[in-house]
From TrEMBL:
Pfam families: Asp_Glu_race (PF01177)
InterPro entries assigned: Asp/Glu/hydantoin_racemase, Asp/Glu_race, Asp_race
Molecular function in Gene Ontology: aspartate racemase activity
Keyword set, alphabetical order: Isomerase
PANTHER family: ASPARTATE-GLUTAMATE RACEMASE FAMILY (PTHR21198:SF7), GLUTAMATE RACEMASE (PTHR21198)
Entry's EC annotation: 5.1.1.13
Statement: the UniProt record of this protein carries the keyword Isomerase: yes
Native organism taxonomy: unclassified sequences, metagenomes, organismal metagenomes
Class of the enzyme per the UniProt entry, highest EC level: isomerase
Similarity field: Belongs to the aspartate/glutamate racemases family.
Protein name: Aspartate racemase
C-alpha cells in the first residue's frame, strides 16, 4: 500500500488524489474498488522544507522520518513525498524509515531524458534551488543538459505564485494578474524566451492552478508512477 507524506502543500496533495482518480476513471474504473488503497498523511505541522534549505527555518527531516514511520506502522509498504524540495533528504529519510520511496525528482529526470531536449527550464522553490535538489540528478541522469533558471525578478514571482496557491489568490478571476496560473505562465514564457525547449515544474503546488502541455510537471509524474504501479500490482 502506498503512503503519501503530504501537506507540502495541502492543495497539491489533494490534487494528487484528484488527478489519480480522474486517470483511473477515464481508463475504465467505475467502482470505488477499482481504485488503489492509499494512506494520505497531511503533515502540516512539519517545518517548511524551503525555509530550511534557505537557512531561515528549522529542519523538516526528523519530522518526515516520524511521519514515514507512522505510515509504515499502519501498513504502508512504499512511500512518496508530495514535495520536490523534501527530496533534498530522501536518502536519509528512506534509510531511517526503512521503506522504499518513489523518487519524484528521479522520475522527472527520466521523463525529461525521453524528450531528448537539452535546454531545460526549471521552476522550483527558492529552497529547492538553493539545496540543488534537481542538479545532482541532472548530473547523474542527464549530464549534458543545460538548466535554465528564472532571473531574480521571475524567481521572486515564482515565490509569489506558490504562496498564491496556498491562499485565496488561486480563486481570483482567470485574467487577474495575481492569479497564480498567470504568474506561472509568465515565468514559463520567460524561460522559453531564454532558450528552454521544455520546462520542468519542480513544485507540486504549481499544478493546482497551472498546467501547460510543454512542461514536465512533477505532480503529474507522481500520478503517472502511482498509476503504473497500480496497474502492475
Amino acid at each position: 500500500m502506498i503512503g503519501v507524506i503530504g501537506g507540502g502543500g495541502v492543495a497539491a496533495t489533494n490534487k494528487l488524489c484528484e488527478l489519480l482518480e480522474i486517470r483511473l476513471t477515464k481508463n475504465g474504473s467505475y467502482r470505488d474498488a477499482h481504485h488503489p488503497e492509499m494512506l494520505i498523511y497531511q503533515a502540516t505541522k512539519v517545518p517548511s522544507r524551503s525555509l530550511y534549505l534557505e537557512r531561515r527555518g528549522d529542519s523538516f527531516i526528523d519530522d518526515y522520518i516520524v511521519v514515514g514511520k507512522k505510515l509504515k506502522a499502519i501498513v504502508a509498504t512504499i512511500l512518496c513525498m508530495c514535495c520536490n524540495t523534501a527530496h533534498y533528504a530522501i536518502i536519509q529519510i528512506e534509510q531511517h524509515v526503512d521503506l522504499p520511496f518513489i523518487n519524484i525528482i528521479e522520475e522527472v529526470l527520466f521523463a525529461v531524458k525521453d524528450t531528448r531536449a537539452t535546454n531545460i527550464g526549471l521552476i522550483a522553490s527558492d529552497g529547492c534551488l538553493k539545496g540543488k535538489v534537481y542538479e545532482k540528478y541532472f548530473e547523474s541522469i542527464l549530464p549534458t543538459a543545460h538548466i535554465i533558471y528564472p532571473n531574480k525578478y521571475f524567481q521572486q514571482e515564482v515565490t509569489i505564485g506558490i504562496c498564491g496557491i496556498k491562499n485565496t489568490f488561486r480563486f481570483l478571476e482567470k485574467d487577474h494578474p495575481n492569479r497564480p496560473q498567470n504568474i506561472f505562465l509568465n515565468v514559463y514564457k520567460h524561460l522559453i524566451d531564454n532558450g528552454a525547449e521544455i520546462v520542468v515544474i519542480g513544485c507540486t503546488d504549481i499544478r493546482v492552478d497551472f498546467h501547460h502541455e510543454n512542461t514536465i510537471d512533477s505532480l503529474e509524474i507522481l500520478v503517472n508512477k502511482i498509476y503504473q504501479m497500480y496497474l502492475e500490482r
